[in-house]
Amino acid sequence: MTAHARPQVMGIVNVTPDSFSDGGRFTGLEAGLAHARKLIADGAGILDIGGESTRPGAEPVSEADEIARVVPLIQAIRAESPIPISIDTMKPAVARAAVAAGATIWNDVAALGFAPEGPAVAAELGCEVVLMHMQGEPRSMQAEPVYEDVVGEVLAFLAARAGAAMTAGVAREKIWLDPGIGFGKTVAHNLALLAALPLFVETGFPVLLGASRKRFIQGLDPLAVEAVGRLGGSLAAALEGARAGVAAVRVHDVRETVQALTVQAAIAGV
After folding, report:
1. pLDDT (tens digit, 9 = 90+) per residue, 175-219?
2. For residue 27, what pLDDT is reported?
3. 218 is in which domain, residue-wise?
4. Helical H runs in 14-149?
C-alpha cells in the first residue's frame, strides 16, 4: 500500500424525514445534536449536516424548510464545538444561511450548478466547497444512467465545474472534488470510479469519497437489503479510498471507520 496521510472522517447528520439510511431518526434539534455529539466522540473530524434528502427518488424541499432544519442545529453544534461543519445543500441561500450560522464547508451534490449564482455565492462566502458529480437529479438519477466512459466523463465534468468556480473567484485551494458514488450510476459505474480514485487524487484537488451504505453494495451482496446492513461494504470502500489517497470519507458509521483506518495506517506504518 502506498503511504498516504489518513483521510479525515466526515460524519453524516441528516435532519431529514426521508434520508435513505437514517431518515426521521435525527429530525428534532435535540436528537440531531445528540447524534452530532456521538459522532464527535466516535472520532469524526468533520460533520456534514443535510436538510434535504438526495436519495434516489427524493422529492425537493423548499429553501425555507431546509434552512429551518439545518441552521438551529449548526448553531447548537458551533456553540459547543469548534469542529468543521459542512452544509450538504444545492441551494445558495441555504449555504449562505448555514455559513452565517457557523458552517465552514459547502458540500454541493450539484457542483454549484443548481442556480446560476452558485459559483458567485461560493466565492462570496469564502468557504471550502465540495463539487460532486451527479447525472440527472435525485428524483430520476437512477432510472437508466448511461455513460460512454464514466471515469473520463466524471473527471471532465468536475474539472469544468472547478474551472467555473475559480473563474467566479473561488480560490483553488478551497475546492474539493467528489466523484458522486451512487448518484446516477450503476453498480459497474460505481466500481469503475472506485477503481479510478487515484486519477481523481492526481488532479491535485482534495477528494471526498461518499460510498457509505450506498445501494451498489446490495448489488454485490443481495443480502444487504437494509442500508444498516452494508457496513462491511462501506468499510471496504473507505479503505480503498484511503489507499488511493482521498482527503476525506463521508460515512454514517464513524467509530467503525475510524477503527478500520487506524488499523490500516498502523499496518502501513503511517
Report:
1. 999 999 999 999 999 999 999 999 999 999 999 999 999 999 999
2. 55
3. 8-268
4. 29-42, 63-80, 92-101, 118-125
From residue 59, alpha-carbon distances to 42, 52, 260 in Å are 31, 9, 34
Q: How many domains does the chain have?
A: 1
Domain membership of residue 3 (yes or no) is no
H-helix or E-strand containing 190?
helix 187-195
Query: Which amino acid type is present at position 251?
Result: V
Helix (H, G, I), strand (E, B) or coil at 96: helix
The three cell numbers of residue 22 are 437514517
Q: Are 153 and 130 in contact (CB under 8 A)?
A: no
Amino acid letter at 203? T
Is residue 2 domain-resident? no
What kind and span of H or E run contains 220? helix 216-220
The amino acid present at 39, given as its one-letter code, is L
Does any domain span residue 1?
Answer: no
Q: In what order do the strands lie in the sheet with 85-88?
A: 175-178, 128-132, 105-108, 85-88, 46-50, 8-14, 248-251, 208-209
We report the CATH number of the domain holding residue 55 as: 3.20.20.20
CB atoms within 10 A of CB 79: 9
Would you name the residues annotated as active-site residues?
A: 214, 250
Instruction: Kindly report the backbone phi and psi dihedral angles of residue 25, in degrees, each rounded to the nearest multiple of 5, phi listed first.
Output: -80, -30
Lookup result for grid cell 435525527: 26
The predicted model scores a pTM of 0.93
Q: Cell numbers of 96, please?
A: 449562505
